[in-house]
Design goal:
The complex is a heterodimer of chains A (732) and B (88).
Chain A: H1 3-7, E1 19-21, H2 23-31, E2 38-40, H3 46-49, E3 53-54, H4 69-73, H5 83-103, H6 116-124, H7 140-165, H8 191-206, H9 213-229, H10 233-236, H11 243-258, H12 274-278, H13 296-309, H14 317-326, H15 335-345, E4 351-352, E5 356-357, H16 358-370, H17 374-378, H18 383-399, H19 404-427, H20 431-454, H21 463-504, H22 509-524, H23 526-562, H24 579-586, H25 588-591, H26 601-611, H27 620-650, H28 666-699, E6 706-711, E7 722-727
Antiparallel strand pairs in A: 4-5, 6-7
Helix pairs in contact in A: 5-7, 5-9, 5-13, 6-7, 7-8, 7-9, 8-9, 9-11, 11-13, 13-15, 16-18, 16-23, 18-19, 19-20, 20-21, 21-22, 21-23, 23-27, 23-28, 27-28
Chain B: H1 6-9, E1 13-19, E2 22-32, E3 37-46, E4 49-58, E5 65-69, H2 70-87
Antiparallel strand pairs in B: 1-2, 1-5, 2-3, 3-4
Classes of the chains: A mainly alpha (732), B alpha+beta (88).
């Protein structure tokens, strides 16, 4: 609400006689109120009031920002001395502001908009589109070269604003776009005009032949900005061209090599909190961000975009599925890449990668998972259900590019959707669709549960329940996959038996018919059947790894509990809660899932008892020995399975035994399995350490010296933390 | 004017003077017994410049004066009189 629309053109200074002073009245009325009373708009929630900016509070009131004399006197229309050095320094700092904003999640006003030249350029666009000059110093380096640099950065900012408006990521959480009331980004000239301005600047620099490092750096900076301006091509034209990304990497590396040799200092006051004090601002004052010292952030940006562009090369849905699983799994990708992925994958023309309609893409998943021909399947299922399924699948893909916390939250929502979908498929008796949906649901449930360890959500005492539950889910998934593989094998055998039958049949119409049927099956179905069988073999290996690792964790917890080191309840007593309530709260996301049913709290308790070795048992040591031997065997099996998978990946799925679908994410998947292998070995070592330490501890009668912590190793995979014994710190 | 209560001012635009040249113009959302104000859609005017600040709380110690546009006050009073007459 603009105040002028309420007050008309009232100018306070000019129309003071139109105003009535009600301070005394307010004083009188307030004095009659009880101290605790607040008179408020009934629609206003006082909680919102906690977000208000308090005037005269230096932490909240941006009007109190104190500017230096240099900041106040700074003038964009002045050509500060040593123009080449200064223009290079300003452009360099502006680019490092971009990195700080996009790579380090800093705010726009404390980075890009802290540059007085950026502010000035955006202010000049209030009157309409302009390609400059935006300031007139009379020096070509300031007016043209710096002008084009700032213009290019503003154009990138506009592109980021467009990406943010797609609603893929969360403002403030993934990206800040506090534009300080500037709505002028749309008044920026078109891309070709900006490219023209930057190219012209590069040509202008040709005239300079002093061979200084400043000049070289400025040239690289202009080229970097050109590359940044081209980023939008990946969205507007769905360009898969990586030449600008390669140039971005090359020029950033060059600048990284030069920067340590340069002393760059922009004119005093050219980067300031000035904008926070003078422009519309609904946020507390913030200091200017400490900037990165090099351009590695641009290399990350370019590498991550190059990674997500690879999805365009997918040849099957096994590959898109595996791509989505792995591309953002090991490290959180750059926010621009994470936004671009779903926008490139699920396009505005309602296609996936410009190749498949949403429902066709969905049916390909079913086909590749079950090796059944979708046309046969689609006819029996209602269109509405297929559309709903497609949307849930696309949401799964979109979720894969979320930030690490939202990723888990997205799965939470997905669980209910997959569950409801499965129930609907059951009601129309569609086994194939049902199996695939169940596979997606169980996989999501396992991912959701284990991701909690990565996010450090669970306390050590919850480790048993979570790992036992994932073991339980893995068991269901394993059964499902075996069943699916059985169906595929039976189909393959049916086709092979046709051939045997053919050999026995005498020539005639019956034989001709069977031969045609056999050839059709061999030409159209056999290849997919073999691929699916081998993919299911891979999935079975993977689920057996998860199952074994969970079992190892469960055994380790049980050993620790057998020694009295840990229990399935918080060590801190609470009058307001109970073990059962805490357990139920943790498992609430699974409460509404129909299949597999969430076991009761008592089942969790009972299963733990089965694993524990009672200290009164005569054969305590023998049972302990058995448990550790079991862990060793399981670890060996896990390592063997991981090696098999890694061999399959390295061999490009050509070993005839296993299809992993990881062609596009070969390195990433190998890194993931290496981490998993490291974790498996670390678990084996931990098992020995736990037993040795605790036995020694008992001998020395010091059972209270240790506590259990969940330890995450840098080389390992965080979904399976190590339940480590730590010496309790002496408080005194 | 004396028949008005604090609740009558809720939702109306106040002109709150903080210092000689710093004025906040915003819609009154809440006020407490200590006369701390909560204003929304605030426009800050300093000298010849102005900017939007959103939701702002003004502690009693910071405010010099509260003013309201005369026609708005007259309308508020007239409404109140009419309302009182209708319930008598």
């Amino acid at each position: 609400m603009e105040v002028d629309s309420i007050l008309g053109s009232l100018s306070i200074a000019d129309n003071i006689d139109q105003l009535v002073d009600v301070t005394g009245l307010f004083d009188e009325l307030c004095s009659k109120l009880k101290p605790e009373v607040i008179v408020k708009d009934p629609k206003f929630d006082l909680f919102e009031g906690t977000h208000s900016l308090e005037v005269d509070n230096s932490k909240l009131d941006s009007s109190l920002i104190e500017l230096t004399a240099e900041e106040l006197e700074f003038d964009v229309n002045v050509a500060y001395e040593s123009p080449l050095e200064k223009v290079t320094a300003i452009s360099d700092r502006l680019l490092r502001c971009v990195i700080s904003w996009l790579n380090e999640y800093q705010t726009l006003p404390t980075t890009v908009l802290s540059c007085r030249y950026t502010e000035s350029l955006l202010s000049s666009l209030l009157k309409g589109t302009s390609a400059g000059p935006f300031w007139r110093t009379g020096n070509v380096l300031y007016d043209k070269v710096l002008g084009s640099c700032v213009l290019g950065v503003c154009y990138l900012t506009k592109f980021v604003q467009k990406l943010l408006s797609a609603g893929i990521v969360f403002e403030e959480e993934d990206l800040n776009f506090n534009s300080m009331g500037f709505n002028t980004f749309n008044n920026l000239p078109e891309q070709d005009v900006i490219i023209g301005a930057l190219t012209e600047s590069l040509q202008l620099l040709e005239a300079y032949s002093d061979g200084s490092l400043h000049l070289t750096t400025l040239r690289h900076i202009l080229k970097i900005i050109l590359c940044l301006v081209h980023l939008e091509d990946h969205l507007t034209d769905y360009s898969t061209e990586t030449i600008h990304l390669d140039e971005l990497i090359e020029n950033s590396n060059s600048v990284n090599g030069i920067l340590p040799q340069l002393q760059l200092s922009p004119p005093n006051g050219s980067f300031s909190t000035y904008i926070q004090k003078h422009r519309s601002n609904q946020f507390p004052p913030r200091k200017i961000t400490k900037l990165p010292t090099d351009y590695s952030g641009f290399i990350t940006l370019a590498d991550d975009i190059k990674t997500i562009l690879l999805v365009n090369k997918a040849e099957s849905t096994l590959e898109t599925y595996q791509f989505a699983r792995f591309f953002n799994k090991l490290k959180q990708r750059h926010v621009i890449a994470r936004i671009l992925f779903p926008l490139i994958f699920i396009r505005d023309d309602r296609t996936v990668l410009g190749k498949h309609s949403f429902t066709h893409f969905y049916s390909l998943h079913i086909k590749e998972f079950s090796a059944q021909i979708p046309s046969k399947l689609l006819s029996s299922i209602g269109n509405e259900l297929i559309h709903e399924s497609s949307n849930i699948l696309l949401e799964w893909y979109q979720n894969c590019s979320q930030n690490t916390c939202r990723y888990r939250q997205g799965f939470n929502r997905q669980l209910i959707l997959w569950d409801s979908l499965q129930a609907q498929f059951e009601s129309v008796n569609s086994q194939t669709y049902c199996s695939w949906t169940y596979f997606m649901k169980l996989s999501s449930m396992i991912e959701f549960s284990l991701k909690g360890f990565d996010l450090d959500i669970y306390k050590p005492f919850e480790a048993y329940s979570m790992f036992w539950y994932v073991y339980y889910l893995s068991h269901h998934l394993e059964n499902l996959l075996k069943e699916c593989q059985g169906d595929v094998e039976s189909h393959i055998n049916t086709i092979h038996s046709m051939n045997k039958k053919l050999k026995k049949l005498k020539a005639g119409e019956k034989k001709d018919q069977l031969r045609t049927k056999y050839r059709f099956a061999m030409d159209n179905e056999m290849e997919q059947l073999r691929t699916t069988k081998q993919f299911l073999t891979y999935l079975l290996k993977e689920v057996s790894i998860t199952k074994s690792l969970c079992l190892i964790e469960v055994f380790q917890f049980a050993i620790l509990k057998s020694f009295g080191m840990i229990d399935v309840k918080s060590s801190i007593p609470s009058n307001f809660s109970s073990e059962r309530l805490i357990h139920n709260l943790r498992f609430k996301p699974f409460n509404s899932i129909g299949v597999p049913e969430l076991p009761e709290y008592e089942v969790f308790q009972q299963t733990l008892k089965d694993f524990i070795i009672e200290d009164k048992e005569a054969a305590f040591d023998i049972k302990l020995e058995r448990a550790t031997t079991f862990i060793d065997t399981e670890v060996r099996n896990v390592v063997d399975s991981i090696d098999e998978i890694m061999q399959g990946i390295k061999g490009g799925d050509n070993n005839g035994a296993m299809v992993t679908g990881t062609r596009l994410v070969q390195e990433l998947s190998l890194e993931y399995y290496s981490k998993l292998k490291h974790t498996s070995k670390a678990l084996a070592v931990n098992s020995e350490v736990i037993v040795t330490t605790l036995k020694r501890n008992i001998e020395h009668k010091g059972s209270n010296d240790y506590k259990v912590e969940l330890h995450y190793t840098a080389e390992g995979w965080n979904y399976f933390p190590i339940q480590t014994l730590r010496l309790k710190k002496n408080r005194y | 004017m004396n028949i008005l209560k604090l609740s009558d001012f809720i939702g109306n635009t106040l002109i709150v003077s903080l210092t000689e040249d710093r004025i906040l113009v915003g819609s009154l959302v809440a006020v407490d017994a200590q006369m701390n104000l909560l204003l929304d859609h605030v426009e800050e005017r300093m000298g010849s410049s102005s900017r939007m600040m959103g939701l702002v709380s003004v502690p009693r110690r910071s405010l010099q004066s509260i003013m309201i546009n005369k026609p708005v006050l007259q309308q508020l009073t007239a409404n109140k009189v009419e309302f009182m007459a209708s319930i008598v």
